[in-house]
């Protein structure tokens, strides 16, 4: 069974950093792009960026460029999303998802809740 | 960036009713349009990819159409489990932007 298993919920203070993980299983990790999607409470889905784990080619949304870092370790089939200098406005659910060849997201992680509060 | 605009933003309908949601792209995206369903507190689920292809396991009452800039998602006969929020997403050029969502509520 194809799965993306994300790390657990986080509570952080403003200014702190955070790295969320997304571990893939049940398929060949290196041959599918992985996307990160943000969803703020009660709001819609926001596409953050993608990474190709085989060579770590990365593409960011301009809205998130410079604010986040996406990386991957193909030896352990895991993608990461790093959030720096956290603000209250970063409070959200963060999802990872696998991209098909047509750039649809067919397998999703359960999401990682991030709560930033002083 | 390619902007995706859905209409309506919210919709009230009854079980058994036929429902159509529209998504418009700010420029041509060929056939690279995907539809997702999200229920409260749940993970988004891929329904339709490349405008009209039904994802495995998705009921046939869901269908999609369109090409270029204008697309539709149709639910032929609403079921109780279909009340949810629906998102379109373009897969033509990064960033692969989403529409703002359509909240489908029970009338």
Observed structural traits:
heterodimer, A: 118 residues, mainly beta, 11 strands, globular, B: 107 residues, 0% helix
Structure description:
The complex is a heterodimer of chains A (118) and B (107). The mean pLDDT of chain A is 97. Chain A contains no helices and 11 strands. With 118 residues, chain A is mostly beta strands. In chain A, the strands form 2 sheets. In chain A, strands 2, 4, 5, 6, 9, 10 and 11 form a 7-stranded mixed beta sheet that branches. In chain A, strands 1-3-8-7 form a 4-stranded antiparallel beta sheet, with no helix packed on it. In chain B, the strands form 2 sheets. Chain B has a 6-stranded mixed beta sheet, with no helix packed on it. A 4-stranded antiparallel beta sheet of chain B has the order 1-3-8-7, with no helix packed on it. Chain B starts with a strand and ends with a strand. Chain B has 107 residues and is an all-beta fold. Helix content of chain B is 0%, strand content 48%. Chain B is globular, with a radius of gyration of 13 Å. Chain B has strands at residues 4-7, 10-13, 19-25, 33-38, 45-49, 53-54, 62-67, 70-75, 85-90, 102-106. The relative contact order of chain B is 0.34. Chain B contains no helices and 10 strands. In chain B, a hairpin with a 6-residue loop joins strand 4 (33-38) and strand 5. Classes of the chains: A mainly beta (118), B mainly beta (107). Chain A binds chain B through residues 35, 37, 44-47, 49-50, 59-63, 95, 97, 99-100, 102-106, 108-111, and chain B through 1, 32, 34, 36, 38, 43-46, 49-50, 55, 85, 87, 89, 91-92, 94-101.
Summarize the structure.
The complex is a heterodimer of chains A (118) and B (107). Chain A has 118 residues and is an all-beta fold.
């Amino acid at each position: 069974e194809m799965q993306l298993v994300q790390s657990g919920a986080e509570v952080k203070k403003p200014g702190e950093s955070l790295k969320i993980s997304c571990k893939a299983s049940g398929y060949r990790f290196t041959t599918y792009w992985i996307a990160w999607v943000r969803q703020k409470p009660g709001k819609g889905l926001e596409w953050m960026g993608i990474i190709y784990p085989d060579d770590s080619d990365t593409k960011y949304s301009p809205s998130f460029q410079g604010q986040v870092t996406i990386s991957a370790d193909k030896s352990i089939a895991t993608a990461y999303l790093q959030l720096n200098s956290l603000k209250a406005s970063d409070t959200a659910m963060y999802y990872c998802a696998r991209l098909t060849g047509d750039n649809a997201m067919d397998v999703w992680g359960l999401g990682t809740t991030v709560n930033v509060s002083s | 960036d390619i902007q995706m605009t859905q209409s309506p933003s919210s919709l009230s309908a009854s079980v058994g009713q036929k429902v159509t949601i529209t998504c418009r792209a700010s420029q041509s995206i060929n056939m690279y349009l995907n539809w997702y369903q999200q229920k409260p507190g749940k993970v988004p689920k891929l329904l339709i990819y490349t405008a009209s292809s039904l994802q495995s396991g998705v009921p046939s009452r869901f269908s999609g159409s369109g090409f270029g800039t204008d697309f539709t998602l149709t639910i032929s006969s609403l079921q109780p489990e279909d009340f949810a929020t629906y998102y379109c997403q373009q897969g033509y050029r990064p960033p692969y932007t989403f529409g703002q969502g359509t909240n489908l509520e029970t009338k």
